# Entry
Amino acid sequence: MTKMIAALVLAFAALTSALTVPAYAQQNAQDTVWIQVAARPSLASAQDEAQIFAAKLPDVAGFALGGGWYGVLIGPYTREDAERVLQVYRKERQIPRDSFIAFPANLRNQFYPLAGDAAQAATAAPSQAPSQPLVEAAPQAETTEAPATAAEEPVVIAEVAPTLPDETPAQARRSERLLSREERKQLQIALKAAGFYTSAIDGAFGRGTRGSMSDWQISKGLEPTGVLTTAQRQMLLGDYNAPLISVGMRRISDNRAGIALEIPAAEVSFTNYEPPFAHYNATGDLGVRVLLISQRGDKSTLYGLYDIMQTLEIVPLEGPRERKANSFTLEGRDSRITSFTQASLKNGEIKGFTLIWPAGDEARRARVLTAMQESFERLDGVLDDAAGADIQQDIDLLSGLEIRKPRLSRSGFFVSANGMVVTTSDVVQACTRITLDHGYAAELVAQDADSGMAILRPSQTLAPMAVAELSTQSPRLQSEIAVSGFSYEGVLGAPSLTWGKLADVKDLDGDNGVARLALSAQPGDVGGPVVDASGAVLGMLLPKQSSDRQLPADVSFAVNAAVIRSAMEAAGVTAQSQSTGAPLPNQALVNRATGMTVLVSCWE
# Structure
């Protein structure tokens, strides 16, 4: 059945490709992708592996990957076709489970197939038919690449994998006995990742491990001895490590930040310092980014960083996060990216990193993240607070990172001691998340399209500085009123008062549930409370209506207190009331009005 499904998928891909050939012919090789199914540390073993795959799959090719490694791939395909092919072939176990999509920019010279016309496969149109690392202990040479600017660039240490000869079964058993317990466990992990091993990772090569080794050997067209040779062990670990090889994992030492770790060096490179971050921006097709976190501080600084990071675009709202006494982790996911941040406090220094990865490539991201976490090392030193001081400042940026902004922000006001809020209904339309003052989640309790009102309940109990008291008296015409609101949608950080007069107790169409105000309001003021001189709430400011009539700039409208009270009662919320009282001193009125006002934000 799976073969039939695969055939149908590939036939559909072929039909789609056939229908779109003229358009695709105008595209270049950057519009194509490959599926990497294996990586080998020698050209000979990679050629042998390519032939094994070519015997059962079409469109097999081999390319040098750099660092002494050679990859076996199938393709090229469009990205959409590649994802379908990857799913079908994985399900049929035609390719390893940790196979992944690779980009042409990461491929070097082609070594398979050798036919004259196949050498151009990397730039051909997509085919019309249709990972993660442990490193086995082996001698390795290290070379140090001199940085372009010694004061700025971190040192990169490149690793070169040797070519190992194969062994007889007797030699394989002898070399296997030299493996440490940890190395044995690594082989079990790799077998488990490839789908051949399901038992405990204990480093003991019993019947289950031997059986999985035999199954793996059969899948590779090898003699099923149940004992892996040194070359086969390297082949197994090479497959497991393929995702990291594909992004060029290398260890870097950033002496200014005081951090050493492995990073996907084929996808990112150092850009600049903007404390507390060292920026490593994308250089490859994946769009990966890495930040190193380095600053002096104490527990308060750590907690502040935890809060600030969650306001940034690079940390999507959805995802687990945890703050402990001296460390925190943040994970955020949306349709575009997945980001992970970790930071810890030790000896007055806060250090950590952030990995930002494109969505839809989870297996490879998980392996890269694990490698970064396991290799993370604190070195001496911390970023100078003055580093990057010459960078252009922007109110919407924090240390070079864009601050997350809501789709829409308006004003609202507290109507109960536990934090219930009345606001305008236009701010709660098509929101994936509603917040109060950016930090407190809220849910929609009720909304009235006719009056333009919405009632919100915070997810946690709040303690407002002031609670609205709805006026029970009919206000006097031409009396002074004020609206309290976040005029500039939260940019100023606090609400402000705009003064005006009550022009009429009904609107221009004669609706006595809406008052007309002589007041020049800003869009951010909408939803804010309209108060009289005593601090009693006369109504809620409404948005300006789009119509063929062009009204003067100082004409505004507000739904009155009676309508607000009725809507609250219908939602089961008891309104607090106030009869007309004595005028308050100006500062007292400002304190009361702004104390009940809250910023309401709609997030996509």
